[in-house]
Design goal:
Elements: E1 4-5, H1 8-24, E2 31-37, H2 41-57, E3 60-66, H3 72-84, E4 90-93, H4 103-107, H5 121-129, H6 137-148, E5 157-161, H7 168-177, E6 181-185, H8 192-197, E7 201-204, E8 222-225, E9 246-247, H9 254-269
Parallel strand pairs: 1-9, 2-3, 2-4, 5-6, 5-7, 7-8, 8-9
The structure holds the ligand Nc1nc2c(c(=O)[nH]1)N[C@@H](CN(C=O)c1ccc(C(=O)N[C@@H](CCC(=O)O)C(=O)O)cc1)CN2.
Catalytic activity: (6R)-5,10-methylene-5,6,7,8-tetrahydrofolate + NADP(+) = (6R)-5,10-methenyltetrahydrofolate + NADPH; (6R)-5,10-methenyltetrahydrofolate + H2O = (6R)-10-formyltetrahydrofolate + H(+)
EC number: 1.5.1.5, 3.5.4.9
Protein name: Bifunctional protein FolD
Length: 298
């Protein structure tokens, strides 16, 4: 049997439609600053996609481009100026930054209230401790997608392949906060196939084309492919759809959720009343209220 599709495009479209009407109903004018450092063509494409989708829901963008030769201090100064600008509600620094720039220092310059991309150390701590704030856009978008389709996480064996600070690492922490039993795998994991065969939920976020082989995927597993490589290739072999119970398509899965989440956060940062219904998280969580799901568990 073929897996059911976790259709990120359609959920993102619903989120954007709700966002558009929430912004139209408000007197507020949300503005997102985008910071693009260097000439990476993929980064230009992604910032362009975010800008166009922002415009489509009534969010203004302020595009700042910085030369590829910039130092960490120069990029930090750009971000600090946006932090101080009362007309900017959210700041997106497009990853990756050129090698000579200390990306962590740049991210951590973003004020908490403007970290709509959820990339600062403080936002990571909030995701890890489940204390609110903006979630990372890709991990947050994935969780919204799983919630939308009422995929339970409580007590399930979840494997995250990848441990990047803006995706794999926070993704695992968010699922841990939802009482999944989380295992991180990465480039030094010796038994990746074995770990994935045992997983009920697989988050493939390694940035390595088709790293996850179709025959590693357990029957009926939930497979989220957060890979995006040229030619519509993900981190999971397409044949996995023949075994999985649920799977995200590439394209049309995680990517659109990332952008819809970023824009939802930007509107919230500006004070727009975006109710949970707007970003689909109001759907009843199938693991909500399960005995033993207290955050005090060890
Ligand atoms: N500061 C950040 N940098 C990066 C992030 C991020 O969330 N914050 N994520 C990725 C790239 N990314 C957004 O920046 C991104 C990548 C892909 C998509 C997307 O919607 N892709 C489409 C396919 C598009 C196409 O092929 O034309 C899809 O999957 O359907 C959105 C966002 C790294 N950097």
């Amino acid at each position: 049997m073929t897996a059911q599709i976790l259709d990120g495009s359609s959920v993102a479209t619903q989120m954007l439609a709700s966002l558009r009407s929430a912004i139209a109903d408000s007197v507020l004018h949300p503005t997102l600053a985008t910071v693009l450092v260097g000439d990476d063509p993929a980064s230009h494409t992604y910032v362009g996609m975010k800008t166009r989708r922002a415009a489509s829901v009534g969010i203004a963008t302020r595009a700042v481009t910085v030369p590829a030769s910039a130092s960490t201090d120069e990029v930090v100064q750009v971000v600090a100026a946006l932090d101080a600008d009362p007309y900017v509600h959210g700041i997106l620094v497009q990853h990756p930054l050129p090698a000579q720039v200390d990306e962590r220092r740049v991210f951590d310059t973003i004020a908490d209230r403007k970290d709509v991309d959820g990339v600062t150390s403080a936002s990571f701590a909030s995701m890890s401790l489940n204390t609110g704030g903006f979630r990372g856009c890709t991990p947050g978008g994935i969780l919204t997608l799983l919630d939308h389709f009422e995929i339970p996480l409580t007590g399930r064996r979840a494997v995250v392949v990848g441990r990047s600070p803006i995706l794999g690492l926070p993704m695992g922490m968010l699922m841990l906060a939802r009482d999944a039993t989380v295992t991180y795998c990465h480039s030094r994991t010796s038994d990746l196939a074995h770990q994935i065969r045992d997983a009920e939920v697989v988050i493939a976020a390694a940035g390595s084309p088709q790293l996850v082989k179709a025959d590693w995927v357990a029957r009926d597993a939930v497979v989220v492919d957060a890979g995006y490589h040229p030619g519509g290739i993900g981190d999971v072999e397409p044949g996995a759809a023949e075994r999985a119970g649920w799977i995200t398509p590439v394209p049309g899965g995680v990517g659109p959720m990332t952008i819809a989440t970023l824009l939802t956060h930007t509107a919230r940062a500006a004070g727009v009343d975006v109710t949970p219904a707007t970003d689909a998280t109001s759907r009843v969580r199938s693991d909500a209220g399960v005995p033993g799901s207290s955050s005090n568990d060890r």
